[in-house]
Design a protein that fits this description.
Blueprint (H helix, E strand, L loop, with lengths): L19 H31 L8 H13 L4 E6 L4 H11 L4 E7 L18 E5 L12 E4 L6 H6 L1 H22 L2 E7 L26 H21 L5 H9 L6 E7 L2 E2 L10 H10 L4 E4 L5 E3 L1 E2 H13 L6 E3 L4 E3 H12 L5 E4 L14 H7 L7 H16 L6
Parallel strand pairs: 1-2, 1-4, 2-3, 4-5, 5-6, 6-11, 7-10, 8-13
Antiparallel strand pairs: 9-12
Helix pairs in contact: 1-2, 3-9, 5-6, 8-10, 8-12, 10-12
The structure holds nicotinamide-adenine-dinucleotide and uridine-5'-diphosphate-glucuronic acid (UGA).
Length: about 400
Protein backbone atom coordinates (compact mmCIF):
# COMPACT_ATOMS: atom_id res chain seq x y z
CA UNK A 1 0.00 0.00 0.00
CA UNK A 2 1.19 3.56 -0.73
CA UNK A 3 1.32 6.06 2.13
CA UNK A 4 -1.93 7.75 0.94
CA UNK A 5 -3.78 4.45 1.40
CA UNK A 6 -4.16 3.76 -2.33
CA UNK A 7 -2.99 0.48 -3.76
CA UNK A 8 0.33 0.97 -5.55
CA UNK A 9 0.49 -0.19 -9.13
CA UNK A 10 3.01 -2.96 -9.84
CA UNK A 11 6.13 -1.52 -11.44
CA UNK A 12 6.21 -1.74 -15.23
CA UNK A 13 7.58 -5.02 -16.48
CA UNK A 14 11.33 -4.43 -16.62
CA UNK A 15 11.86 -6.78 -19.54
CA UNK A 16 12.78 -4.76 -22.62
CA UNK A 17 11.07 -7.48 -24.64
CA UNK A 18 7.69 -6.83 -23.10
CA UNK A 19 7.72 -3.05 -22.59
CA UNK A 20 5.27 -0.74 -24.36
CA UNK A 21 8.25 0.39 -26.45
CA UNK A 22 8.75 -3.17 -27.55
CA UNK A 23 5.22 -3.34 -28.98
CA UNK A 24 5.60 0.05 -30.69
CA UNK A 25 8.87 -1.16 -32.13
CA UNK A 26 7.28 -4.39 -33.29
CA UNK A 27 4.67 -2.41 -35.16
CA UNK A 28 7.50 -0.43 -36.73
CA UNK A 29 9.30 -3.65 -37.77
CA UNK A 30 6.14 -5.05 -39.33
CA UNK A 31 5.61 -1.88 -41.34
CA UNK A 32 9.24 -1.95 -42.38
CA UNK A 33 9.04 -5.54 -43.47
CA UNK A 34 5.97 -4.71 -45.56
CA UNK A 35 7.64 -1.69 -47.16
CA UNK A 36 10.83 -3.67 -47.67
CA UNK A 37 8.80 -6.32 -49.51
CA UNK A 38 7.40 -3.53 -51.72
CA UNK A 39 10.94 -2.31 -52.31
CA UNK A 40 12.02 -5.75 -53.34
CA UNK A 41 9.15 -6.07 -55.79
CA UNK A 42 10.07 -2.71 -57.29
CA UNK A 43 13.69 -3.71 -57.58
CA UNK A 44 12.79 -7.05 -59.16
CA UNK A 45 10.47 -5.35 -61.63
CA UNK A 46 12.94 -2.66 -62.57
CA UNK A 47 15.79 -5.16 -62.88
CA UNK A 48 13.67 -7.44 -65.08
CA UNK A 49 12.63 -4.58 -67.35
CA UNK A 50 16.10 -2.98 -67.55
CA UNK A 51 18.01 -6.15 -68.33
CA UNK A 52 16.28 -8.40 -70.77
CA UNK A 53 18.96 -11.05 -70.14
CA UNK A 54 17.70 -11.35 -66.60
CA UNK A 55 14.23 -12.30 -67.72
CA UNK A 56 15.33 -15.91 -67.73
CA UNK A 57 15.63 -15.58 -63.92
CA UNK A 58 12.48 -16.00 -61.92
CA UNK A 59 11.33 -13.00 -59.84
CA UNK A 60 11.93 -15.24 -56.81
CA UNK A 61 15.57 -15.79 -57.61
CA UNK A 62 16.06 -12.09 -58.28
CA UNK A 63 14.35 -11.35 -54.98
CA UNK A 64 16.66 -13.76 -53.17
CA UNK A 65 19.67 -12.38 -54.99
CA UNK A 66 18.76 -8.87 -53.91
CA UNK A 67 18.33 -10.04 -50.33
CA UNK A 68 21.67 -11.73 -50.44
CA UNK A 69 23.23 -8.58 -51.80
CA UNK A 70 21.70 -6.34 -49.16
CA UNK A 71 21.58 -8.60 -46.13
CA UNK A 72 24.56 -10.88 -46.46
CA UNK A 73 27.17 -8.43 -47.58
CA UNK A 74 29.65 -10.01 -49.92
CA UNK A 75 32.55 -8.28 -48.23
CA UNK A 76 33.21 -8.43 -44.53
CA UNK A 77 35.09 -5.70 -42.67
CA UNK A 78 36.66 -7.13 -39.55
CA UNK A 79 38.29 -5.38 -36.60
CA UNK A 80 40.90 -7.32 -34.64
CA UNK A 81 41.90 -5.60 -31.39
CA UNK A 82 45.26 -6.85 -30.15
CA UNK A 83 45.96 -7.99 -33.72
CA UNK A 84 49.69 -7.19 -33.43
CA UNK A 85 50.07 -9.79 -30.68
CA UNK A 86 50.76 -13.49 -30.82
CA UNK A 87 47.32 -15.05 -31.42
CA UNK A 88 45.96 -11.86 -33.04
CA UNK A 89 48.57 -11.80 -35.80
CA UNK A 90 47.94 -15.45 -36.69
CA UNK A 91 44.22 -14.71 -36.76
CA UNK A 92 44.88 -11.76 -39.10
CA UNK A 93 46.89 -14.04 -41.43
CA UNK A 94 43.98 -16.46 -41.63
CA UNK A 95 41.35 -13.73 -42.13
CA UNK A 96 43.44 -12.05 -44.86
CA UNK A 97 43.54 -15.33 -46.80
CA UNK A 98 39.89 -14.74 -47.63
CA UNK A 99 39.82 -12.16 -50.40
CA UNK A 100 36.40 -10.95 -49.33
CA UNK A 101 37.71 -9.80 -45.96
CA UNK A 102 39.03 -6.37 -45.10
CA UNK A 103 40.93 -6.40 -41.81
CA UNK A 104 41.56 -3.51 -39.45
CA UNK A 105 43.93 -4.03 -36.51
CA UNK A 106 43.82 -1.75 -33.44
CA UNK A 107 46.72 -2.23 -31.05
CA UNK A 108 48.76 -0.13 -28.61
CA UNK A 109 51.86 -2.36 -29.06
CA UNK A 110 52.22 -3.00 -25.32
CA UNK A 111 53.10 -6.66 -25.91
CA UNK A 112 52.52 -6.83 -29.66
CA UNK A 113 54.64 -5.60 -32.54
CA UNK A 114 54.21 -4.27 -36.08
CA UNK A 115 56.75 -6.88 -37.08
CA UNK A 116 54.10 -9.59 -36.59
CA UNK A 117 52.01 -7.91 -39.30
CA UNK A 118 54.77 -6.79 -41.66
CA UNK A 119 53.53 -8.97 -44.50
CA UNK A 120 50.20 -7.08 -44.54
CA UNK A 121 51.33 -3.48 -44.06
CA UNK A 122 50.49 -1.60 -47.27
CA UNK A 123 48.03 -4.27 -48.45
CA UNK A 124 44.85 -2.65 -49.86
CA UNK A 125 42.58 -4.82 -47.68
CA UNK A 126 44.53 -4.14 -44.47
CA UNK A 127 44.73 -1.22 -42.03
CA UNK A 128 46.73 -0.84 -38.84
CA UNK A 129 45.73 1.70 -36.20
CA UNK A 130 47.73 2.58 -33.09
CA UNK A 131 44.94 2.65 -30.57
CA UNK A 132 44.45 1.88 -26.89
CA UNK A 133 41.12 0.11 -26.35
CA UNK A 134 40.59 1.91 -23.05
CA UNK A 135 39.64 4.83 -25.33
CA UNK A 136 36.55 4.70 -27.59
CA UNK A 137 37.00 3.82 -31.26
CA UNK A 138 34.60 4.38 -34.13
CA UNK A 139 35.06 2.27 -37.24
CA UNK A 140 32.41 0.77 -39.51
CA UNK A 141 32.87 -2.98 -39.20
CA UNK A 142 30.80 -6.16 -39.42
CA UNK A 143 32.74 -8.26 -36.93
CA UNK A 144 35.01 -7.54 -33.98
CA UNK A 145 37.53 -10.03 -32.63
CA UNK A 146 38.37 -8.45 -29.29
CA UNK A 147 41.77 -9.79 -28.16
CA UNK A 148 43.49 -6.67 -26.83
CA UNK A 149 44.93 -7.52 -23.41
CA UNK A 150 48.39 -8.59 -22.23
CA UNK A 151 48.33 -12.36 -21.74
CA UNK A 152 51.63 -13.29 -20.12
CA UNK A 153 51.39 -13.19 -16.31
CA UNK A 154 54.64 -11.17 -16.15
CA UNK A 155 53.17 -8.47 -18.40
CA UNK A 156 49.64 -8.39 -17.02
CA UNK A 157 51.00 -8.11 -13.46
CA UNK A 158 53.43 -5.33 -14.50
CA UNK A 159 50.67 -2.68 -14.48
CA UNK A 160 47.65 -4.40 -12.92
CA UNK A 161 45.46 -1.29 -12.90
CA UNK A 162 46.03 -0.88 -16.63
CA UNK A 163 45.26 -4.59 -17.14
CA UNK A 164 41.91 -4.34 -15.42
CA UNK A 165 41.12 -1.11 -17.29
CA UNK A 166 41.95 -2.85 -20.55
CA UNK A 167 39.63 -5.73 -19.70
CA UNK A 168 36.75 -3.66 -18.35
CA UNK A 169 36.87 -0.32 -20.19
CA UNK A 170 38.33 -1.91 -23.31
CA UNK A 171 35.52 -4.46 -23.51
CA UNK A 172 32.93 -1.79 -22.72
CA UNK A 173 34.25 0.38 -25.55
CA UNK A 174 34.25 -2.50 -28.01
CA UNK A 175 30.72 -3.49 -26.97
CA UNK A 176 29.63 0.12 -27.46
CA UNK A 177 31.11 0.02 -30.94
CA UNK A 178 29.50 -3.36 -31.69
CA UNK A 179 26.13 -2.03 -30.60
CA UNK A 180 26.48 1.18 -32.56
CA UNK A 181 27.49 -0.37 -35.87
CA UNK A 182 25.58 -3.66 -35.45
CA UNK A 183 28.72 -5.81 -35.47
CA UNK A 184 29.09 -9.28 -34.00
CA UNK A 185 31.74 -9.29 -31.27
CA UNK A 186 33.92 -12.15 -30.03
CA UNK A 187 35.80 -11.86 -26.72
CA UNK A 188 38.91 -13.93 -26.08
CA UNK A 189 38.34 -14.88 -22.47
CA UNK A 190 40.50 -17.35 -20.67
CA UNK A 191 40.67 -20.57 -18.70
CA UNK A 192 41.83 -18.29 -15.86
CA UNK A 193 38.16 -17.52 -15.19
CA UNK A 194 38.19 -20.98 -13.54
CA UNK A 195 40.98 -19.80 -11.20
CA UNK A 196 42.55 -22.69 -9.27
CA UNK A 197 39.85 -25.11 -10.40
CA UNK A 198 38.15 -27.55 -8.06
CA UNK A 199 36.49 -29.30 -11.01
CA UNK A 200 38.69 -31.23 -13.42
CA UNK A 201 38.59 -31.14 -16.41
CA UNK A 202 36.89 -27.74 -16.57
CA UNK A 203 33.47 -27.54 -18.21
CA UNK A 204 31.87 -24.25 -19.17
CA UNK A 205 29.27 -24.73 -16.42
CA UNK A 206 31.93 -24.52 -13.70
CA UNK A 207 31.90 -21.06 -12.05
CA UNK A 208 35.50 -21.14 -10.92
CA UNK A 209 37.61 -20.66 -7.82
CA UNK A 210 39.23 -17.25 -8.20
CA UNK A 211 41.01 -15.11 -5.61
CA UNK A 212 39.42 -11.65 -6.06
CA UNK A 213 42.28 -9.75 -4.39
CA UNK A 214 45.37 -11.63 -5.53
CA UNK A 215 48.15 -10.60 -7.90
CA UNK A 216 46.50 -12.44 -10.82
CA UNK A 217 43.06 -10.92 -10.15
CA UNK A 218 43.54 -7.96 -12.50
CA UNK A 219 43.51 -10.51 -15.32
CA UNK A 220 41.23 -13.29 -13.97
CA UNK A 221 38.60 -10.99 -12.50
CA UNK A 222 39.07 -8.52 -15.38
CA UNK A 223 38.13 -11.26 -17.86
CA UNK A 224 35.25 -12.38 -15.65
CA UNK A 225 33.82 -8.83 -15.69
CA UNK A 226 34.44 -8.68 -19.44
CA UNK A 227 32.31 -11.85 -19.83
CA UNK A 228 29.61 -10.30 -17.63
CA UNK A 229 29.59 -7.15 -19.76
CA UNK A 230 29.26 -9.23 -22.92
CA UNK A 231 26.21 -11.05 -21.57
CA UNK A 232 24.65 -7.87 -20.12
CA UNK A 233 24.92 -6.13 -23.48
CA UNK A 234 23.53 -9.19 -25.18
CA UNK A 235 20.57 -9.46 -22.80
CA UNK A 236 19.89 -5.75 -22.67
CA UNK A 237 20.46 -4.82 -26.29
CA UNK A 238 20.61 -7.95 -28.31
CA UNK A 239 18.04 -10.52 -29.18
CA UNK A 240 19.03 -13.35 -31.47
CA UNK A 241 17.23 -12.25 -34.59
CA UNK A 242 16.95 -13.68 -38.03
CA UNK A 243 19.04 -11.67 -40.46
CA UNK A 244 16.07 -9.90 -42.02
CA UNK A 245 14.79 -8.55 -38.71
CA UNK A 246 18.33 -7.73 -37.64
CA UNK A 247 18.87 -5.77 -40.84
CA UNK A 248 15.62 -3.86 -40.36
CA UNK A 249 16.43 -3.22 -36.73
CA UNK A 250 19.82 -1.81 -37.60
CA UNK A 251 18.21 0.32 -40.34
CA UNK A 252 15.95 1.76 -37.66
CA UNK A 253 18.90 2.60 -35.47
CA UNK A 254 17.86 -0.16 -33.09
CA UNK A 255 20.77 -1.68 -31.21
CA UNK A 256 21.65 -5.31 -31.65
CA UNK A 257 24.57 -6.99 -29.91
CA UNK A 258 25.54 -10.45 -31.05
CA UNK A 259 28.21 -11.92 -28.83
CA UNK A 260 30.64 -14.83 -28.85
CA UNK A 261 32.90 -15.81 -25.94
CA UNK A 262 35.90 -18.13 -26.28
CA UNK A 263 37.57 -19.42 -23.12
CA UNK A 264 41.09 -19.96 -24.39
CA UNK A 265 43.47 -22.43 -22.71
CA UNK A 266 47.28 -22.04 -22.89
CA UNK A 267 48.23 -21.47 -26.49
CA UNK A 268 51.72 -21.61 -27.99
CA UNK A 269 53.41 -21.28 -31.36
CA UNK A 270 55.69 -19.17 -33.55
CA UNK A 271 55.76 -15.39 -32.92
CA UNK A 272 55.40 -15.63 -29.14
CA UNK A 273 57.57 -12.98 -27.56
CA UNK A 274 60.94 -14.63 -26.85
CA UNK A 275 61.11 -13.04 -23.41
CA UNK A 276 57.40 -13.26 -22.85
CA UNK A 277 57.78 -15.21 -19.59
CA UNK A 278 55.23 -17.90 -20.40
CA UNK A 279 56.33 -21.43 -19.87
CA UNK A 280 56.59 -22.76 -23.44
CA UNK A 281 58.45 -19.71 -24.74
CA UNK A 282 60.73 -19.71 -21.68
CA UNK A 283 61.67 -23.40 -22.02
CA UNK A 284 62.28 -23.19 -25.78
CA UNK A 285 64.40 -20.04 -25.51
CA UNK A 286 66.34 -21.57 -22.60
CA UNK A 287 66.93 -24.84 -24.47
CA UNK A 288 68.22 -22.97 -27.52
CA UNK A 289 70.45 -20.72 -25.40
CA UNK A 290 71.83 -23.71 -23.44
CA UNK A 291 70.41 -22.30 -20.22
CA UNK A 292 68.71 -24.50 -17.58
CA UNK A 293 64.95 -24.95 -17.99
CA UNK A 294 63.32 -23.17 -15.02
CA UNK A 295 60.52 -25.37 -13.69
CA UNK A 296 58.56 -23.43 -11.09
CA UNK A 297 57.75 -25.45 -7.98
CA UNK A 298 56.23 -27.88 -7.42
CA UNK A 299 56.51 -28.88 -11.11
CA UNK A 300 53.51 -31.19 -10.80
CA UNK A 301 51.08 -28.37 -11.72
CA UNK A 302 49.47 -29.12 -15.08
CA UNK A 303 48.56 -27.20 -18.21
CA UNK A 304 47.03 -28.15 -21.57
CA UNK A 305 48.75 -26.62 -24.57
CA UNK A 306 47.02 -25.73 -27.83
CA UNK A 307 48.90 -24.98 -31.05
CA UNK A 308 48.07 -21.54 -32.44
CA UNK A 309 46.69 -22.67 -35.82
CA UNK A 310 44.16 -24.90 -34.03
CA UNK A 311 43.22 -21.95 -31.81
CA UNK A 312 42.64 -19.63 -34.77
CA UNK A 313 40.47 -22.26 -36.43
CA UNK A 314 38.37 -22.56 -33.26
CA UNK A 315 37.96 -18.78 -32.92
CA UNK A 316 36.79 -18.38 -36.53
CA UNK A 317 34.33 -21.26 -36.18
CA UNK A 318 32.94 -19.70 -33.02
CA UNK A 319 32.55 -16.29 -34.70
CA UNK A 320 30.84 -17.81 -37.74
CA UNK A 321 28.65 -20.23 -35.78
CA UNK A 322 25.35 -19.68 -34.00
CA UNK A 323 26.32 -20.21 -30.38
CA UNK A 324 27.20 -17.35 -28.03
CA UNK A 325 29.40 -19.50 -25.80
CA UNK A 326 31.23 -19.34 -23.52
CA UNK A 327 33.02 -22.23 -25.19
CA UNK A 328 36.32 -23.75 -24.09
CA UNK A 329 38.89 -23.73 -26.89
CA UNK A 330 42.00 -25.65 -25.96
CA UNK A 331 43.84 -28.91 -26.33
CA UNK A 332 42.87 -31.47 -23.67
CA UNK A 333 46.35 -33.09 -23.70
CA UNK A 334 47.49 -32.42 -20.10
CA UNK A 335 51.14 -32.16 -18.98
CA UNK A 336 52.90 -31.39 -15.72
CA UNK A 337 55.54 -28.64 -16.04
CA UNK A 338 58.21 -31.29 -15.40
CA UNK A 339 56.84 -33.37 -18.29
CA UNK A 340 56.86 -30.30 -20.53
CA UNK A 341 60.50 -29.64 -19.60
CA UNK A 342 61.40 -33.27 -20.35
CA UNK A 343 59.73 -33.02 -23.76
CA UNK A 344 61.55 -29.79 -24.63
CA UNK A 345 64.87 -31.28 -23.47
CA UNK A 346 64.39 -34.43 -25.54
CA UNK A 347 63.22 -32.62 -28.70
CA UNK A 348 65.41 -29.52 -28.63
CA UNK A 349 68.52 -29.93 -26.49
CA UNK A 350 69.22 -33.29 -24.74
CA UNK A 351 72.19 -31.71 -22.89
CA UNK A 352 70.23 -28.96 -21.22
CA UNK A 353 69.69 -29.04 -17.42
CA UNK A 354 66.33 -28.82 -15.69
CA UNK A 355 66.28 -26.79 -12.46
CA UNK A 356 63.46 -25.95 -10.05
CA UNK A 357 62.78 -22.36 -8.99
CA UNK A 358 60.29 -20.58 -6.69
CA UNK A 359 56.76 -20.16 -8.01
CA UNK A 360 54.55 -17.06 -7.94
CA UNK A 361 51.37 -16.69 -5.79
CA UNK A 362 48.02 -18.22 -6.80
CA UNK A 363 49.45 -20.36 -9.61
CA UNK A 364 46.63 -22.76 -10.62
CA UNK A 365 47.50 -26.38 -9.82
CA UNK A 366 45.72 -27.96 -12.76
CA UNK A 367 44.08 -27.04 -16.05
CA UNK A 368 42.48 -29.15 -18.73
CA UNK A 369 39.57 -28.15 -20.94
CA UNK A 370 36.47 -30.24 -21.43
CA UNK A 371 35.88 -29.55 -25.13
CA UNK A 372 32.63 -31.49 -25.59
CA UNK A 373 30.78 -28.24 -26.44
CA UNK A 374 33.37 -27.14 -28.99
CA UNK A 375 33.15 -30.55 -30.67
CA UNK A 376 29.36 -30.62 -30.72
CA UNK A 377 28.57 -26.99 -31.47
CA UNK A 378 31.52 -25.96 -33.64
CA UNK A 379 32.66 -29.31 -35.04
CA UNK A 380 36.09 -28.30 -33.71
CA UNK A 381 38.88 -30.20 -32.05
CA UNK A 382 42.62 -29.59 -32.05
CA UNK A 383 44.74 -31.45 -34.59
CA UNK A 384 48.32 -30.69 -33.51
CA UNK A 385 49.85 -32.61 -30.61
CA UNK A 386 52.37 -30.89 -28.32
CA UNK A 387 55.31 -32.93 -29.63
CA UNK A 388 54.42 -31.94 -33.21
CA UNK A 389 53.92 -28.26 -32.40
CA UNK A 390 57.11 -27.66 -30.40
CA UNK A 391 59.47 -28.10 -33.41
CA UNK A 392 57.60 -25.37 -35.39
CA UNK A 393 58.17 -23.01 -32.50
CA UNK A 394 61.79 -24.06 -32.15
CA UNK A 395 62.41 -23.23 -35.82
CA UNK A 396 60.89 -19.76 -35.40
CA UNK A 397 62.84 -19.07 -32.18
CA UNK A 398 66.13 -20.25 -33.70
CA UNK A 399 65.61 -17.91 -36.63
CA UNK A 400 64.86 -14.93 -34.41
CA UNK A 401 67.69 -15.71 -31.97
CA UNK A 402 70.09 -16.45 -34.81
CA UNK A 403 71.07 -19.84 -33.35
CA UNK A 404 71.04 -22.66 -35.95
CA UNK A 405 70.32 -26.24 -34.89
CA UNK A 406 73.49 -28.20 -34.03
CA UNK A 407 74.42 -30.69 -36.76
N1 LIG B 1 47.95 -17.14 -25.38
C1 LIG B 1 47.26 -17.73 -24.43
O1 LIG B 1 47.65 -18.77 -23.92
C2 LIG B 1 45.93 -17.17 -24.01
C3 LIG B 1 45.16 -17.92 -23.13
C4 LIG B 1 43.94 -17.41 -22.72
C5 LIG B 1 43.46 -16.21 -23.23
N2 LIG B 1 44.23 -15.51 -24.10
C6 LIG B 1 43.72 -14.22 -24.58
O2 LIG B 1 43.94 -14.08 -25.97
C7 LIG B 1 44.26 -12.72 -26.28
C8 LIG B 1 45.57 -12.65 -27.05
O3 LIG B 1 46.59 -13.24 -26.28
P1 LIG B 1 48.08 -13.36 -26.83
O4 LIG B 1 48.68 -14.59 -26.27
O5 LIG B 1 48.09 -13.15 -28.30
O6 LIG B 1 48.75 -12.12 -26.10
P2 LIG B 1 49.71 -10.96 -26.63
O7 LIG B 1 50.18 -10.25 -25.43
O8 LIG B 1 50.71 -11.49 -27.58
O9 LIG B 1 48.69 -10.05 -27.46
C9 LIG B 1 47.87 -9.07 -26.88
C10 LIG B 1 47.85 -7.86 -27.80
O10 LIG B 1 46.99 -6.87 -27.23
C11 LIG B 1 47.65 -5.61 -27.30
N3 LIG B 1 47.13 -4.78 -26.22
C12 LIG B 1 47.30 -4.96 -24.88
N4 LIG B 1 46.66 -4.00 -24.21
C13 LIG B 1 46.06 -3.20 -25.13
C14 LIG B 1 45.27 -2.03 -25.07
N5 LIG B 1 44.95 -1.46 -23.90
N6 LIG B 1 44.84 -1.47 -26.23
C15 LIG B 1 45.19 -2.01 -27.42
N7 LIG B 1 45.93 -3.10 -27.54
C16 LIG B 1 46.37 -3.69 -26.41
C17 LIG B 1 49.12 -5.94 -27.16
O11 LIG B 1 49.97 -4.92 -27.61
C18 LIG B 1 49.21 -7.21 -28.00
O12 LIG B 1 49.44 -6.92 -29.34
C19 LIG B 1 44.26 -11.98 -24.95
O13 LIG B 1 42.99 -11.39 -24.78
C20 LIG B 1 44.45 -13.07 -23.92
O14 LIG B 1 43.87 -12.73 -22.69
C21 LIG B 1 45.46 -15.96 -24.50
O1 LIG C 1 45.42 -20.50 -20.48
C1 LIG C 1 45.12 -19.52 -19.85
O2 LIG C 1 43.96 -19.24 -19.61
C2 LIG C 1 46.19 -18.59 -19.36
O3 LIG C 1 47.39 -19.25 -19.55
C3 LIG C 1 48.53 -18.57 -19.25
O4 LIG C 1 48.67 -18.45 -17.82
P1 LIG C 1 49.60 -19.53 -17.11
O5 LIG C 1 49.07 -20.90 -17.33
O6 LIG C 1 49.83 -19.14 -15.72
O7 LIG C 1 50.90 -19.34 -17.99
P2 LIG C 1 52.45 -19.55 -17.82
O8 LIG C 1 53.10 -18.35 -17.29
O9 LIG C 1 52.91 -20.07 -19.11
O10 LIG C 1 52.59 -20.67 -16.67
C4 LIG C 1 52.21 -22.00 -16.85
C5 LIG C 1 52.85 -22.85 -15.77
O11 LIG C 1 54.23 -22.92 -16.04
C6 LIG C 1 54.97 -22.60 -14.89
N1 LIG C 1 56.22 -21.96 -15.35
C7 LIG C 1 56.23 -20.77 -15.98
C8 LIG C 1 57.39 -20.22 -16.44
C9 LIG C 1 58.59 -20.90 -16.23
O12 LIG C 1 59.70 -20.45 -16.62
N2 LIG C 1 58.56 -22.08 -15.59
C10 LIG C 1 57.41 -22.64 -15.16
O13 LIG C 1 57.43 -23.74 -14.60
C11 LIG C 1 54.07 -21.71 -14.06
O14 LIG C 1 54.38 -21.83 -12.68
C12 LIG C 1 52.71 -22.29 -14.37
O15 LIG C 1 52.43 -23.33 -13.48
C13 LIG C 1 48.50 -17.26 -20.03
O16 LIG C 1 49.64 -16.57 -19.91
C14 LIG C 1 47.29 -16.47 -19.73
O17 LIG C 1 47.23 -15.29 -20.48
C15 LIG C 1 46.16 -17.31 -20.14
O18 LIG C 1 44.95 -16.65 -19.95
Amino acid sequence: MASNGQTTKPPPNPSPLRSAKFFQDREKFDKNIESSMDDHENVVNSLSSSYSGLSILSPESLFLGFHKYVLFKANMRILVTGGAGFIGSHLVDRLMQNEKNEVIVADNYFTGSKDNLKQWIGHPRFELIRHDVTEPLLVEVDQIYHLACPASPIFYKYNPVKTIKTNVMGTLNMLGLAKRVGARILLTSTSEVYGDPLVHPQTEEYWGNVNPIGVRSCYDEGKRVAETLMFDYHRQHGIEQCSLIKFLLSQNGEPTTEIRIARIFNTYGPRMNIDDGRVVSNFIAQAIRDEPLTVQLPGTQTRSFCYVSDMVDGLIRLMEGNDTGPINIGNPGEFTMLELAENVKELINPDVKIMTVENTPDDPRQRKPDITKAKELLGWEPKIKLRDGLPFMEEDFRQRLGVPKKA
